Task: structure prediction
Amino acid sequence: MLRSLSGRFLILTILFVMLAEIMILVPSVARFRQDYLLSRLERAQIASLALLANDMIDADVEEELLRNAEVFNVVLRRDEARQLMLASPVPGPVARTFDLRDAGPWVLMRDAILRLADPEPRVIRVFGNPVREAGLLIEITMGTSALRTAMIDYGWRILGLSFVISAITSVFLFLAVRALLVRPIKRVIEQMQSYAAMPEDARRIIEPTAGITELREAEQALKSLETELTGALRQKDRLAQLGGAVAKISHDLRNILTSAQLFVDRIEKSEDPTVRRLAPKLVNSITRAVNLCESTLAFGRAEEPAPRLTIVHLAELAGDVIDGERLAVGDADVSFSEDIPATLTVRADAEQLHRVLLNLVRNARQAVVATGRPGEISVAADEDEKAWRIWVTDTGPGLPPKARENLFTPFHGGTRRGGAGLGLAISAELIRGHGGQLLLERTGDEGTRFRIELPKTVVAMDEAAE
Result:
């Protein structure tokens, strides 16, 4: 029960009500003390009036009057003259004097606390106004033992009554909270559990019914979220089914195109001028189709594995990539350069980083060759306290506007004619797996530059991944 919302609310209610009653206890006891002293003044005045009515009261009657008034002596001032009306032996000296005629609330509370804190019996003198203006001033001398006992008894009765009130109040608040808050919250939780069991079932989407404004707003937000999630899951299923179908079609189509490619190789040997002129175009078309099928199959396979981070000598890795691309240049006038410190090492998956650099350098080489003009491709790198940075720059014609809009989107961000747009998408995914980013820094008539950022800290990796 203590771990439930309603149970904790019940306990807190009892504690707060008791705290409020305790805060009221001190003024209540101070008021009780004032009433107690005023009642003794009134009894003493009545006893003194009895003496005024009959001057011949003997000692026994006087003692009985003082005992009934619970005082030691009574002084009444009438017509500016003080007169000792009743008197008896006082057990000790007067410890303190209290004037009830002009005592404020703070003074009364202070005196009440001091009386409760002092268990020793004392003799006190009390001044007050006579009842019904029967004189100018009445003064009594009395003991504090009975007063303190009465104050303690009154305080315990107040505490007991406070506990009963707090218990009853807490029970009613407990039932109210359980009906108005706990049950609607439990209903929302049960609905969320039901939806989580089968989120594709639109019948399990919550329907807002709460009467409380805040809960109803929460239910409406939950309904919107569940609706969007159900639609996204359905779309995901359709895309998964479509992807499976595309993969099967691409697999079969690749086999067909491979056979066609073999036939085209034989056609190229024909002596017919027209056939010899058209055969290269047919070969290029079939080659692009085969590459598209292979890229689609590669992208449709399982996600890339998590990178196996090791210390990689970046200069050696970039050199391997550039050496391979130099062989592919052929007769084109394309130069390569490196600006990487020989001692620079990065923490990365060597195979995955090689694939990313190879894709960027190959794209740059194809862009430069396509212009038919001399060009240059450079790979540079540096580091600071936060990250390693790698730049791949070319002097090609820049990316077309359509490619820039969907640069890292599969099948939409192709940078060259006939490309599938998967190379950059896969490269960006591999770099994100390292917690880094693949960014297009600039592109235009002067060329294109990509930047790879690999963070050195876990926090930076998390931020970059987000």
